[in-house]
Amino acid sequence: MARIMRMPPKSELPDGPHRDFVEELRRYYRLAGRPSLREISRAIEGRADLKEVTASQETVRRMLRGMVLPTDWDRVYAVFFVLCEMGNVEPEGWRWEAPDDRERNIECLRRRWDEALEYEELESGSSSPPLPRTAVADPWSSDASSYSDEPPF
């Protein structure tokens, strides 16, 4: 009997976009009946329509445990697609039945993946958020209302 793979505790994967992405992916993992990593990996290998994407058991494990955030959407989609297939979930189906919260399964996962990627980039320092543009008074301007004989330093 395979061990049950649990959601990592918040001490390992804190609240934020990455955790949100993992929770969303794990939703399909649970709906698929928590298949073994081997089953998921083999199902991906057996699909000719997944653009020759592979995902080893270790890659799938690391994704579902939040240890890695794939930068390749095709790999994320492959795992998602086979989990949907195993769980009899329509990838393009509506995530919720409520008419005021209509988002497709694939759209929700893609959005959460995008948000996680952007957050990871900011956290790693590979890019920085834009600085806010604020109006700063020019101390050397000739505005008569702010004239002073004192230098601006």
Overall description:
By secondary structure, the chain is mainly α. It is built from five helices and no strands. The protein has one domain. About 10% of the residues have low confidence.
Largest sheet: number of strands, sense, barrel closure:
none
| SSE order | HHHHH
User: Strand fraction band?
Assistant: under 5%
User: Given the C-alpha coordinates, what overall shape results?
Assistant: globular
List key phrases describing it.
5 helices, mainly alpha
Concise account of the structure shown:
It contains five helices and no strands.
SSE layout and pairing:
Elements: H1 17-31, H2 37-45, H3 57-64, H4 73-87, H5 105-124
Helix pairs in contact: 1-4, 1-5, 2-3, 2-4
